[in-house]
Amino acid sequence: MKTKTLKKNKVNVVTLGCSKNIFDSEVMMAQLKANKFDVEHEAKQDDSEIVIINTCGFIDNAKQESIDTILRYADAKKEGQVDKVYVTGCLSERYKSDLETEIPEVDAYFGTRELPRLLKTLKADYKHELVGERLLTTPAHFAYFKIAEGCDRPCSFCAIPLMRGKHVSTPIEDLVQQAKGLAAKGVKELMLIAQDLTYYGLDIYKKRSLAELIDRLADVEGIEWIRLHYAFPTGFPMDVLDVMKARENVCNYLDMPLQHGSTRMLKAMRRGTTREKTEALIDNIRNIVPDIAIRTTLISGYPGETEADFQEMYDWVEKSKFERLGIFTYSHEENTHAFNFKDDVPEKLKRERADAIMELQSGISYNLNQKHIGQTRKVLFDKVEGDYFIGRTEFDSPEVDNEVLVKKMDTYVRIGDFSDILITSADHYDLYGEVK
Ligand code: SF4
C-alpha cells in the first residue's frame, strides 16, 4: 500500500549512538551520493523511498532507542510511508538473527563492516577511490576524525569489541590525506576518535604512534584545532603531551574515560590500573600541560560495588576536580565478562550514585569556570540559539562540554569562525562573554 509519492532513489540516513557511528554514516552517504542516490541525513521530510538506520548496541538505553527507531520505520513501511528499510551498525552486528526474527519488516540487516554488501543490495558499487571521503553531517567547520576501528582491550563491562572487532589503525598517510581534503572543504577542527585512541599504531607500526600522527595532522594547513577523544589510561603515551605543548593547534584537551575511582572496582573491571596509578597519571599530565581540560566518564553500580567503593570514587572525584565529567549507570551486557557476575546493585541505587556524582561535579564545574572570568578566550562559533551566538573554547568539545554565549544584540560573529572573547561571567556549564 503506497499512500504518498516517495522520491525515487532518495535515501534518508538515520544515525544513532556515538561519533564513530556518525563517521560511518558520513562515509556511507558519500558512497551513496557517488552512486547517484539523492541522500540526506535525518531528513525532515518523510519522502525518502529508502531509509537506512545506523544503530547503536552499546548499553540498555541506547539499544532501546535503536529498537524504537527501527520499529518506527517498520510501521512507516507498513503504512506505505517508505519503500525500503535497511538496518546497519552495532545493534545489527550484535543481534542480527534476533532482529530478523523480531522485526521481519526490515528489508535487510548489515553488520558494522558490511558497507560493500549494503551498497550491493541497493544495486550500487563500493567505490574504493572514495576511501576516507565523507559527506559531513556536522557543521562544516568541524569533523569527527576516526583514526582506528575496533578494540583489543579486555574491559569486563564492554560489548564494543563484540560489535567492532579487533583494533585496526588507519595508516598515517591516508589520515593526512583525509585531513587535507577536509581542510580544503573548510573544516577547521578535527575531533580525533577511536575506541582506544592511545593504541594507535601498535598494530601497523608495532609502536604507539599517536604523537607522530598528531604532529603530522598539525602540519595540515587550515586545521586550527585538533582534539583528542577516548584515550585509555594504561600505557598512556606521554609523548602526546609534548606535541600538545609544542603545537599551537593541538587543543589542551584530553578525553580519557576512567570508569571508576576504586582500585577494587578497577580490578574487577579489568582496566589494568589502580586509583593510585590513575592519580599519578593525571598529576603527571597536569604537570606537563598545566591548563589542560580533562574530560572523563565513569560507571556507577558495577556488580559488587559497595557503599565503600562508591565513597572512594566520590572522594576521588572531589579531589581530582576534572574539568568535564559524565557518568553512566552500569548496563548488564550479554557476552561480556561482567555478565558472569550478578547485577546486584539495584537500578535505583545505581541512579542515586550517578546523580550524587553529577551533583558534586556541577559544583566543581562552577568553581573551575569562575577562573575564566576576565580572561580572553579564542572561541569557535557553532550556532545561533535564541538571543545568543553559541561557541566553544579549546577546552570544550561539541555536544558534551561547556558553551560560550555571546549576546546577538551586542555584536556580530560569523558561525564557523574564531573570535577572541572576553569572558565576563560563568555558571555551572556555560560561560558568557563579549567580543574583545
Ligand atoms: S577500551 Fe573502551 S571500547 Fe575498548 S573494551 Fe575498554 S571500554 Fe570498551
Summarize the structure.
This protein has 436 residues and is an alpha/beta fold. It contains twelve helices and 18 strands.
Give helix % range. Answer: 25-40%
* DSSP E strands, number: 18
Uncertain stretches: none
- Overall shape: globular
Strand line-up of the largest beta sheet: 6-9-10-11-12-13
Ligand inventory reads: iron/sulfur cluster
Structural class: alpha/beta
Textual characterization of the structure:
The structure is a single chain. With 436 residues, the protein is an alpha/beta fold. 34% of the residues lie in helices and 23% in strands. The protein has twelve helices and 18 strands. It has helices at residues 19-34, 60-78, 90-102, 115-121, 160-164, 172-184, 210-218, 239-246, 263-268, 275-288, 307-320, 347-370, and strands at 7-15, 38-41, 48-55, 84-89, 108-109, 142-146, 148-149, 168-169, 189-193, 225-228, 250-255, 293-300, 324-329, 376-385, 388-392, 403-407, 418-426, 430-435. It has a six-stranded parallel sheet with strand order 6-9-10-11-12-13. Strands 2-1-3-4-5 form a five-stranded parallel sheet, sandwiched between helices. The longest helix is centred in the C-terminal third of the chain and has 24 residues, at 347-370. The protein is globular. The structure holds iron/sulfur cluster. The site of iron/sulfur cluster has 9 residues, from helix 5. Iron/sulfur cluster binds at residues 151, 153, 155, 158, 160-161, 195-196, 232.
